[in-house]
TrEMBL record:
Enoyl reductase (ER) domain ranges (all copies): 7-320
Transmembrane portions of the chain: none
Protein name: Zinc-binding dehydrogenase
Lineage: Bacteria, Pseudomonadati, Pseudomonadota, Alphaproteobacteria, Hyphomicrobiales
Top-level taxon of the source organism: Bacteria
Coiled coil: none
Keyword Hydrolase included in the entry's annotation: no
Keywords of the record: NADP
Pfam name, any one: ADH_N
GO MF, one example: oxidoreductase activity
Length: 322
C-alpha cells in the first residue's frame, strides 16, 4: 500500500506492507486525513511522544471505513464509516484501537469528518473535563485560530460560557474568530492584551485559560486569570521554556494543569473518547460543532499540503484525500 513515510532523505510517499489488526485493533481504509501541527515536526524527524524517526508512517487523524476487525474489536462492522486518531494515518490503510474512534455522522463527508477527532478529544478534555468550565464563566483560548482552538471556543460556548476570548497574532484570522464563538479577539504578541482581558472581566481576569502557546505568554496568562482560576496547558506553540512568575502564580492561587495525549494510556484515551460521545455528540451530529476546511489536497500533493500549513496563513483544517 502507499503511505507517507519519514526516512533518511525526509518524508515521501512509499510502498509499505498493509497492516493486520490484532486484539482490539480495527483496520481502516483511509479516505481523508487532517493535518496537525505535530505532523510538521514529525515530517522533519522529530519525535512526538514515543512516535517518530526513520521508518515512521506519518499522520494522526483520519476518516474512512472499517476494512477488517481484530479478534477482540467490538461494536463495529466491516463497512462502517468511522473517524479517529492514532498513528500512521497518512496511508491507504491504518490501524486504530476500537475505543479511539467515532462513527462518522451520515450528514458529513469524509473530508469533513477527518477534521474533527483530534480537536474534539483534545478540547473537550481541556475545556470541560480538566478545565471544568461552568455556565456563566469566562474563558480565554490561546492560539484560537488553530483547528483545535476554533473547536475549544465552540465547546466553551456550547457549555454556557458567558465570555469567550480568543487570541491570534494574525490580524486576518483574529478578525474571523467571532465566527466561531469569540466575544473578544486579542493579539497575544501585543503586551496590552492582558489589559484588554482585564477590562472585559471587570478587572478580575478569566475563570479559565486553555493555553496552546505557553512560552512568552506564560506569566501574562497568570496576570489574566482571576484569583482561584485555572490554566490548562495543552501545547507549546510559543516555545518550551520561558520565565514564570511563581509569586504571581501563588498569589492568585491558580490551578495550573498540563495535559497531553503523548503520555496517556490507551485506557485513558478510550475514556476521553467516551466522554465526548456522552457529552457533546449530539452537537457534532447536528453540525453545531464543526470546523472550516481551509484547503483539500490529493495524497499525491501531500508535500504541498505541508508547505501550505508551514506558511501559517490558513484558518481551519488542511485535509488530504486518499
Amino acid at each position: 500500500m502507499k503511505a507517507y513515510v519519514y526516512g533518511a532523505d525526509g518524508a515521501r510517499i512509499s510502498d509499505v506492507a498493509q497492516p493486520k489488526p490484532k486484539g482490539t485493533q480495527v483496520l481502516v481504509r483511509v479516505r481523508a486525513c487532517g493535518l496537525n501541527r505535530a505532523d510538521t515536526g514529525m515530517r522533519k524527524g522529530h519525535a512526538h511522544g514515543a512516535a517518530g524517526g526513520a521508518g515512521t508512517v506519518l499522520g494522526m487523524e483520519w476518516a474512512g471505513e472499517v476494512a477488517e476487525l481484530g479478534p477482540d474489536a467490538k461494536g463495529l462492522e466491516v463497512g462502517d464509516r468511522i473517524m479517529g486518531s492514532g498513528s500512521a494515518a497518512f496511508a491507504e490503510y491504518t490501524l486504530a484501537d476500537h475505543g479511539r474512534l467515532f462513527r462518522a455522522p451520515s450528514n458529513m463527508n469524509f473530508e469533513e469528518a477527518a477534521t474533527l477527532p483530534v480537536a474534539l478529544a483534545t478540547m473537550h478534555n481541556a475545556v470541560v473535563t480538566v478545565g471544568g468550565v461552568q455556565p456563566g464563566q469566562s474563558v480565554l483560548i490561546q492560539g484560537a485560530s488553530s483547528g483545535v482552538g476554533l473547536m475549544a471556543m465552540q465547546i466553551a460556548t456550547l457549555k454556557g460560557a458567558r465570555l469567550v476570548i480568543g487570541s491570534s497574532t494574525d490580524a486576518t484570522r483574529r478578525g474571523r474568530l467571532k465566527e466561531y464563538g469569540a466575544d473578544l479577539a486579542v493579539d497575544s504578541s501585543d503586551p496590552k492584551w492582558v489589559d484588554e482581558v482585564l477590562k472585559a472581566t471587570n478587572g478580575e481576569g478569566v475563570d479559565l485559560i486553555v493555553d496552546q502557546v505557553s512560552g512568552k505568554v506564560a506569566s501574562q496568562n497568570l496576570a489574566a486569570t482571576k484569583v482561584k482560576g485555572r490554566i490548562v496547558n495543552v501545547g507549546r506553540l510559543g516555545g518550551t521554556h520561558a520565565d514564570f512568575n511563581f509569586d504571581l502564580h501563588a498569589a492568585r492561587r491558580i490551578d495550573y494543569v498540563g495535559v497531553t495525549f503523548r503520555t496517556r494510556t490507551i485506557e485513558e484515551v478510550r475514556e476521553i473518547f467516551e466522554e465526548v460521545r456522552k457529552d457533546i455528540w449530539g452537537a457534532v451530529e447536528s453540525r453545531k460543532l464543526q470546523l472550516p476546511i481551509d484547503r483539500v489536497f490529493a495524497f499525491a500533493d501531500i508535500d504541498q499540503a505541508f508547505e501550505h500549513m508551514e506558511a501559517n496563513k490558513h484558518l481551519g483544517k488542511i485535509v488530504v484525500t486518499m
